[in-house]
Structures are given as structure tokens and as C-alpha cells.
Write a structure and sequence with these properties.
- The strands form two sheets. The protein has a four-stranded antiparallel beta sheet with strand order 1-2-4-3, with no helix packed on it.
- By secondary structure, the chain is mainly α.
- Among the domains are: 113 residues, no CATH class; 138 residues, no CATH class; 207 residues, MFS general substrate transporter like domains (Growth Hormone, Chain: A, Up-down Bundle).
- It is built from 29 helices and seven strands.
- α12 packs antiparallel against α25, α13 runs antiparallel to α19 and α22 runs antiparallel to α27.
- 66% of the residues lie in helices and 4% in strands.
- β5 and β6 form a beta hairpin.
- 36% of the residues are buried.
- The protein is globular and about 105 Å long.
Length: 800
């Protein structure tokens, strides 16, 4: 006898009895079974039980086989409170019940239904125990409220434990940061010089602390996700997550929708990436500038030198980092840039004069254009070599040498009467002097700044625009009053001499070196420094090469605009004075534009800023400059163009740092810095020659081809930067996918003590796993190898 599953709720008992037919009996008479087994099922209350004897079972079978059933006969005990009814509505016939010959016995199936309508009560185990069962089943409204309050209290206790653990991780990270800062202050250039072995030990100790910090950060990130889960609120099909406090700076899984469209899923993914960008913002902003990385690497190979006690040196140094004196050093560095790149920004005035007069008989326009290219070429290609000279001979001797060469070049150029003479003086000597003057200033700034490093570099590079403004206005006035360029060249020599001497007198490194010259002027020291600056193994991948070529092509466009704006003004009927004013306005806009570009790049991403500005400049060239024919329109164009045209010089080194950071080779930044200068120098040399070759002097639109070529340069730069951006986005996706996968794999190692039941806990962990898994799947799709995914990564909204 077994319980029929379909009749479970009606307390029905099913009896299955096998029957063996007797071949000698009549067709209408059944043969009783030799042995009958009966199984009785119990009701849920346990009040139903039945045991029948073999005799009564045999009689019951006999009656069923003959089609008769009488349960009220005297020889059978009554089965109260049960009634027996067959499964079929009518009694089956004998022929249908008996199996055919030579077949297996066929069981007879019937049901026993309970007719009592009494309610099955709980076992009498005591009122208190019954009440506890009712409380557990949540049958009482007041008990349901108490259960909810108890669960809420348990979750709050768990939340407090998790938050305390999170605070411990944050405190440990802060402690490690203090230790790292202390060890960093022991290294040059922040304090006194120490020997190479000690520096190596300190550097390795810092690396170990950083690795330990990364491990704690991962635990803190996973714990932040768990804390967010504890605050989860369910609203229909969507899940909203909020952090427990504003101090949780990890990238939380902020929103997940379980039944959404593809568009909603895309928007959720974009929001998730935005949250991760916000979490990584401080790390992205605090990456060192190339000059700082260059100094750190070069200081690791400094020779042994005697030093005072570190504490005594700290007491003597009364000028803090990021202080007022540090910003004074930034102003002095700006003066170095003012006297070099600022003076070169006004070369367009000289070029315009040379093209419109016959100052040097036999000279062509391409000779004068090549002279301007030589200045930029030598200034860029000699920059890495200047670093080695500063390391060997010191800052002051190199700086004074540059001042002497620059002054000599300008004064001798004023006395030249032949083309080769002016080419040698104004081109070669001045080009040599540029790198010897401005490089020492840019190497000093990183020693004075930590948090305000980007602002300081912005102040320094603003000197190029300021110098162009001053020299553009003054040079044209002197040329008009004197009738030639001689006194204009002398004036530039006097001003640059005074400004450079003033800046070089007060510009100093925060911790002056005390090493002996013989320790620095030896073969081993020179070779070690040479390998750091000229280690071109960092160019074994296409992203860093792409950055270098991008820098070169946009710098070609910059040089053409800078040198051609003044002569373009005269070609459309404006005077030389108006042309000089246009060039002055262009340079004045760079004073504001260059620092602004750097700050925008820190907040929105350097590759994003480079792409946006390239598009902006392309629109200005083809839509505005190409159709400009009046003086007011050219003034507006100069303001708009000058604020953005220097994007290459402002962003190239920082972009190289981003690429190397994604590859985990940030120590190669000094070599990348030197390599970029060498690559760019090759592009700068023929820039203005190409511009003049494309000019059509006798046409109504003389600079049409030049404008088209300039726009194509920035268009080529845009394409290259999009390729570089795709690589940066791809590496970011790979890094975030790996981090999400590690978090997903390490969830079983989380040891958060929770008071909830295992079933509820498994559901919550499964929910978080789904959120993490959604992130991994999204990155798997975006990292696809098809062309469509390549294009998506180019334009995917991400801070890179």
C-alpha cells in the first residue's frame, strides 16, 4: 500500500496486490495468491495506520476477483474510518482482471480514501512548542514583525563588522603610504645624496610596500562590494546599491537590471565604467611627468658622495615642496622657456621680412624656411644629450654655455651679409643654445613639486606663448623704424641674455649635489646614464611609435601655422603691422591654452583630449582659416587656434607615460622622452619648407594648398591618436576584466561572519556573482577581434 501522489492532499492510500491466475480454474473464477504483501502509507499527521492479516487479505482478493465486495461481513473486521473504493467507477470484469497465459502477474490497484473530515492537528507536544513552530512558520503577524526586526538587527551587526574591517584596510593603506613617502624622501632629489647600494635597497623596499598595498587594495575592493550588497534595496526588477559611506572609493557595482533591454544593458555598462574611472582618477592624475621620472632614474646611478645626517639636512631646508618658493622656481623656469621657445615663436616676423625683401642676394624662400626648421631640429634632437651634460658638468656650467651661444648667435647674425653666415649664426648657434638653456630649467621643477606638478609645468610652458607675444609686437616695430632686421636681432640678443641670466642666477635644485667632478667624469658613470636616456628598447611596440609619429605630424602643422600666419596676413592684403599683431594674438592664446590643455587632459583623459582638440583644429582649418579674408576674422581665428594648436608639445610626453604605464614599463619613460625628441626633430626640419613649397604667390588664394596640407596633418594625427586610444582602451578593458575575474574567483576566501542562514547567504552571493559575471562578459564582448569591436573601442567613452 502506497500513497498516490495525485491524491496526497485527500489522504488517500493506494494498495497494489499482485495476482497469479490458476490455469485449472474456470474462466470466471480467480485463483488466490499464495503470498500477499501490503504496504500502508501514513498521512502527514501520523494518525493513519493499518495492518491486515493474510486471511482477510485473501478473502478480500477473492471477493474482488469475483466482482463482489462486502466489507460488512461478520468474518472481516470493519476498517473504520476508511471506505474502500476501486480506481475504476464500476467493478472490473473477471476477464479484464485475469492476465493472459504465460504473462507476468498484473497487480490490482485500488485506493482507500479517508472519509473523516476532522482537522489534522499538530502533535500534542505542549503549547510552548506549538507556539514556537507557529513563530518559525511566520503564521502570526506580530511574530513576522519581530522576525523582520531580528533580521534587520543581524544585518546591521554584520554591516558594522564589515565596515570595521574596511576601515582597518583603509588604515593599513594609509600607513603604507606614509612609509613609502618617508622612504621616498630619503632618495634624491628630495634630500641628501646617498650611495647606490642604499638607494637600491630603499627602492626595493618601496616596491615591496607597493605590492603589499596592492594586495590590501584588492581585499578592500572586494569588501566594498560586500558592504554595498548589505545595503541593497529591491525595487521590482531592478537592484539599487549604495555605499555605506563616502569613504568607499572602490568601483561599486552600482546598478544591475535583471530584465532590461539591450540599450539599458549598454547604459548600465557605461555607468559601471564611469564609476571605475572615478575610482582610478587619483592614480591617473598622480602619474609622474617625464622630467620627474628622468630624474628618479638618473639619481639611481649617481656616484658615492659624502653627506650630512638626514635630519640635519631636513632642518636646514626651510623651503617645503609645493610652497611659495617652489612656485617662484616655476616662474624662473618659465623665463628659460620665454628666452628660447618664446623667441623662436617670433621667427615668423623675420621670415615674413626675409620673404618680402632681398636682404641676402641669391637666397631663396626655402633657405629661410629651412633656417627656422634647423632651430627646432637642433633644440629637440640635442635635448637628451643635454641631460647627460647636466649630469656630468652640473646645471650652472651647461646653462651659462647655452646663454653664451644664444647671445653670440643673435649678435653675429646682425652683422652677417651672406646667407651661409646668417644660417650658421641664427640657425645653428641659436638651435644649439636652446636645449642648453631650457632643459636644466625643466629638470629642476620636479624636485620642487608633488601635488601641484601639472600646474607648475603649465606655468613653465606658458613662457613660449608669452615670449611670442612680446617679441612679435616689438620686432616688427623695430624693423619698421630701422628699415632692416639688424637691430631687431640685437634686441632679441639683449633681452634673452638678461632674462636667461636672471633666471639662471636664482634657479636651483632643491637638494644641490656635493659629489666630486672626478666621480662624475668617468667612463662607468657616463655609460650608465647614457643607457638610461638612450635605451630605445621601449620602442619595440607600435603604441609608443604611434605617439611619436602623432607628435611629429601635429608639430608639423603647429610650425606651419606659427611661421605662416604673419605672411598669410600680408598675402590677403594686410600690412606687416597687422600680420605681427595676428602672430602676437596667436602666441598670447597659447599662454592660456597650453596650461588649460594639460589640466583638461588630467581630468578627461590625455588621449581623449588629444582626439577632441585634433577634431577642433581640423574644423578651424577647413571651415574657418580656409575662408578667412578680413582682419577681424583673422583675429578671432588667432584666438581660437592659439588656444589649441600646441596640443602636441603639451600632451606627447604624458601620453608616452600612459602607454608605458599600461605595459608595466614606467621606468622606461626617460628613454621614451629622449626618443620622442629625436623622432620629432626629424619632422620639424622640413616643416616650413613644405609650407612654402605649397604656396602659390601669384594666386588669389596663395595659401590654399598650405592650409589643406596643414589640415591633413592634423587629420593624420587624429587617425593615429584613435589607433593609440583603441590600444589604451583595450588594455584598460583587459585590466578591469582581470580584476573582476580575480574578485569573482576570490569570493570563497572572504571570511565575513554573517548570522544569516546558508540559503539566504548563497542567494546574496549568487546575486553579486551575477553582477561581476556581467562585467566579465561585457568586457569579453568588447575585447572581440572583429573590426566592429576595434571601431567601438576607438570611440568608447572611457578616461584614457
Amino acid at each position: 500500500m502506497t500513497m498516490d501522489p495525485d491524491l496526497h492532499n485527500t489522504n488517500t492510500v493506494v494498495v497494489e496486490v499482485p495476482v497469479t491466475p490458476n490455469p485449472n480454474a474456470e474462466a470466471s473464477a480467480p485463483v488466490p495468491e499464495q503470498e500477499t504483501k501490503e504496504k500502508v502509507g501514513h498521512s502527514p499527521s501520523g494518525s493513519i495506520s493499518s495492518v491486515s492479516s493474510s486471511e482477510s487479505t485473501e478473502k478480500l482478493i477473492k471477493s474482488l476477483s469475483m466482482g463482489k465486495l462486502d466489507i460488512n461481513k461478520d468474518d472481516e473486521p470493519p476498517l473504520e474510518p476508511f471506505t474502500v473504493s476501486p480506481i475504476q467507477p464500476a467493478s472490473p470484469s473477471v476477464s479484464s482482471l485475469l492476465p493472459k497465459a504465460n504473462n507476468a502477474p498484473k497487480p490490482i490497484k485500488f485506493t482507500v480514501r479517508k472519509v473523516s473530515r476532522d482537522t489534522i492537528a499538530l502533535p500534542e507536544t505542549g503549547k510552548a512548542q506549538n507556539k514556537e513552530r507557529e513563530y518559525a512558520y511566520g503564521n502570526l503577524p506580530e511574530n513576522r514583525e519581530k522576525a523582520k526586526e531580528r533580521k534587520s538587527a543581524e544585518k546591521m551587526s554584520q554591516l558594522q563588522y564589515s565596515q570595521a574591517k574596511y576601515d582597518q584596510y583603509a588604515a593599513r593603506i594609509e600607513k603604507i603610504n606614509k612609509e613609502v613617502n618617508f622612504l621616498t624622501n630619503l632618495l634624491p632629489p628630495y634630500n641628501v645624496e646617498i650611495d647606490y647600494v642604499t638607494r637600491t635597497k630603499i627602492t626595493k623596499a618601496i616596491e615591496k610596500l607597493r605590492m603589499k598595498q596592492d594586495e590590501i587594495e584588492k581585499k578592500k575592493y572586494s569588501l566594498g562590494i560586500s558592504i554595498s550588497r548589505l545595503w541593497r534595496e529591491h525595487d521590482e526588477n531592478e537592484i539599487f546599491v549604495r555605499s555605506v559611506s563616502g569613504e568607499i572609493d572602490s568601483a561599486p557595482l552600482t546598478r544591475h537590471s535583471t530584465n532590461v533591454s539591450e540599450l539599458s544593458r549598454i547604459l548600465t555598462g557605461l555607468r559601471d565604467d564611469y564609476e571605475q574611472d572615478a575610482a582610478e582618477f587619483e592614480l591617473y592624475k598622480s602619474r609622474p611627468v617625464p622630467e620627474e621620472a628622468l630624474i628618479e632614474q638618473l639619481e639611481l646611478v649617481s656616484p658615492k658622495s659624502e653627506r650630512d645626517d638626514i635630519l640635519e639636512k631636513l632642518e636646514q631646508d626651510d623651503h617645503p615642496i609645493d610652497g611659495a618658493f617652489a612656485f617662484w622656481q616655476a616662474v624662473l623656469a618659465m623665463l628659460m622657456v620665454f628666452s628660447t621657445w618664446g623667441a623662436n615663436a617670433a621667427f615668423g616676423v623675420f621670415l615674413n621680412y626675409y620673404l618680402t625683401t632681398n636682404s641676402f642676394p641669391g637666397a631663396t624662400q626655402y633657405d629661410f624656411a629651412l633656417m627656422g626648421g634647423v632651430i627646432v631640429f637642433l633644440a629637440q634632437i640635442l635635448a637628451p644629450m643635454t641631460v647627460l651634460l647636466v649630469r656630468i658638468f652640473g646645471q650652472t656650467p651647461v646653462h651659462l654655455t647655452g646663454i653664451c651661444l644664444q647671445t653670440l648667435g643673435y649678435f653675429l647674425a646682425a652683422e652677417c651679409t651672406k646667407l651661409w653666415q646668417v644660417f650658421l649664426c641664427e640657425g645653428v648657434l641659436v638651435g644649439f643654445s636652446f636645449s642648453l638653456i631650457f632643459i636644466p630649467g625643466t629638470l629642476v621643477l620636479p624636485t620642487w613639486f608633488d601635488k601641484q606638478r601639472a600646474t607648475a609645468m603649465g606655468i613653465a610652458v606658458a613662457g613660449a606663448g608669452l615670449g611670442g607675444l612680446v617679441f612679435s609686437l616689438s620686432l616688427n616695430k623695430i624693423i619698421q623704424e630701422t628699415g632692416d632686421q639688424r637691430w631687431a636681432l640685437r634686441m632679441v640678443g639683449f633681452i634673452t641674455l638678461a632674462v636667461s641670466l636672471f633666471g639662471g642666477t636664482f634657479l636651483r635644485v632643491r637638494t644641490p649635489k656635493k659629489s666630486k667632478f672626478k666621480d662624475r667624469f668617468n667612463k662607468d658613470f657616463i655609460i650608465k646614464n647614457f643607457k638610461i636616456v638612450f635605451d630605445f628598447r621601449c620602442f619595440d611596440n607600435y603604441p609608443i611609435i604611434t605617439v611619436g609619429v602623432w607628435f611629429g605630424v601635429v608639430l608639423i602643422g603647429y610650425i606651419i601655422i606659427l611661421y605662416s600666419f604673419s605672411s598669410f596676413a600680408t598675402s590677403i592684403g594686410l600690412s606687416h603691422t597687422q600680420g605681427s599683431n595676428i602672430l602676437a594674438i596667436l602666441n598670447a592664446s597659447q599662454v592660456v591654452g597650453r596650461p588649460l590643455i594639460g589640466n583638461i587632459g588630467d581630468f578627461t583623459g590625455r588621449a581623449n583630449t588629444s582626439v577632441a582638440i585634433s577634431i577642433y583644429v581640423i574644423i578651424l582649418i577647413f571651415a574657418f582659416w580656409f575662408n578667412t579674408t578680413t582682419y577681424p576674422a583673422l583675429i578671432v581665428l588667432s584666438v581660437l587656434m592659439g588656444s589649441a594648436v600646441g596640443v602636441g608639445s603639451t600632451m606627447a610626453q604624458a601620453l608616452a607615460g600612459d602607454v608605458l604605464a599600461k605595459m608595466g614599463r614606467h621606468e622606461k619613460l626617460p628613454a621614451a622622452w629622449g626618443g620622442l625628441n629625436i623622432i620629432v626633430s626629424c619632422f620639424c626640419l622640413p616643416a616650413e619648407v613644405i609650407a612654402l613649397k605649397l604656396r602659390r604667390p601669384h594666386s588669389n588664394h596663395a595659401y590654399a594648398h598650405t592650409q589643406i596640407f596643414t589640415g591633413c596633418c592634423f587629420l593624420m594625427g587624429l587617425i593615429l591618436m584613435l589607433v593609440c586610444r583603441e590600444w589604451l582602451v583595450r588594455k584598460t578593458f583587459e585590466s578591469r576584466r582581470s580584476q573582476a575575474q580575480e574578485t569573482l574567483n576570490s569570493r570563497h576566501n572572504m571570511h565575513l561572519r554573517r548570522q544569516e542562514t546558508p540559503e539566504v547567504e548563497d542567494d546574496e552571493e549568487k546575486d553579486d556573482d551575477q553582477l561581476l559575471q556581467a562585467r566579465v562578459e561585457r568586457y569579453d564582448r568588447l575585447l572581440g577581434g572583429l573590426l566592429i569591436y576595434f571601431i567601438i573601442r576607438m570611440f568608447y567613452p572611457l578616461r584614457v
